[in-house]
Design goal:
This protein is an all-alpha fold. It contains 14 helices and no strands.
């Protein structure tokens, strides 16, 4: 396979594009016209996301031999040393871009985001729930970072950040349910691996219920309008509820893998919900 295709698969471009889309939506909501700030912030998010994805593959090499043997590293399509070099280059590129942003954006990038990305897989991921919360918080922080980069403030993007956090936390737990066999064999103590699939399903069900109850509050309090509510119900809440019913009827790691893909689409729908909040 050509090297560029291997790199493409390593960095997970869809995840990178979702991060850039979050920054673009932030600019839309803020009515920001700072094109250079938008491009720089998008570059930081994309490069940091790519670096984190490659780092995750490096540390999860043994686990992926069991859970995802078709990934580039366990499939022998790239060496670990080359993958490490790629991760370093991506992080370095993101750091360079961040130096040209506002001080609040630099603080978020260097003090909060970068350390969490680097230590997530070797350390935080092994602690039940903490790893999931870390990833969800990082994804929610993209909106706050985008605001800091475009307006030097962190005041208006808390609702989108909270919605992104909730959706991401649910999906991360479902992904861990998919990875139970490999995680247990390698001694990775995620919440599903440690407490079992059914206990994890109970937790996911509670989180879905909380999100479905709390997410309409911006509409109830007249912060967002009807298009926010409509897109929220049909793009996010209905798929989440149907996914929970499916998982309870099929409580297996394989079923969790299928629903993980559905929840990625729900995350994209969540982006649309946030986008429509301005025009409500």
């Amino acid at each position: 396979m050509p090297e560029w295709r291997v790199i493409w698969r390593m960095v997970r471009p869809l995840n990178m594009m979702l991060g850039v889309l979050s920054v673009a939506i932030t600019a839309w909501l803020l009515r920001a016209v700072d094109l250079s700030g938008l491009l720089l912030a998008g570059a930081v998010v994309a490069l940091f996301t790519g670096g984190a994805n490659v780092t995750n593959d490096v540390f999860d090499f043994e686990i992926d031999k069991i859970n995802r043997p078709d990934r580039p590293l366990p499939a022998g399509e790239i060496s670990r040393s080359a993958a490490i070099f790629l991760a370093v280059c991506l992080y370095a590129g993101g750091m360079i871009a961040a130096f040209f942003l506002s001080r609040p954006a630099q603080i978020i990038a260097f003090v909060l985001v970068l350390p969490l990305l680097i230590f997530y897989t070797p350390l935080l991921k092994k602690i039940p729930l903490l790893g999931n919360i870390t990833i969800a918080a990082l994804l929610g922080t993209v909106f706050l970072f985008g605001e800091a980069a475009l307006s030097s403030t962190v005041e208006k993007m808390w609702i989108p950040a909270a919605l992104a956090f909730g959706l991401s936390l649910i999906r991360e737990l479902v992904k861990d349910q998919q990875d139970i066999p490999g995680d247990r064999e390698q001694g990775i103590s995620t919440f599903p691996a440690r407490f079992g699939l059914r206990a994890s399903l109970v937790l996911v069900t509670i989180l879905v219920a909380l999100l479905c109850l709390l997410a309409p509050l911006p509409y109830v309090r007249d912060l967002y309008g009807k298009w926010y509510l409509i897109s929220l119900i049909f793009g996010v809440e209905v798929p989440l509820i149907l996914s929970i019913f499916y998982l309870w009827k099929n409580p297996t790691s394989a079923a969790s893998g299928k629903i993980s893909g559905v929840l990625k689409l729900t995350t994209i729908a969540g982006m649309l919900v946030i986008f429509l909040s301005r025009s409500s």
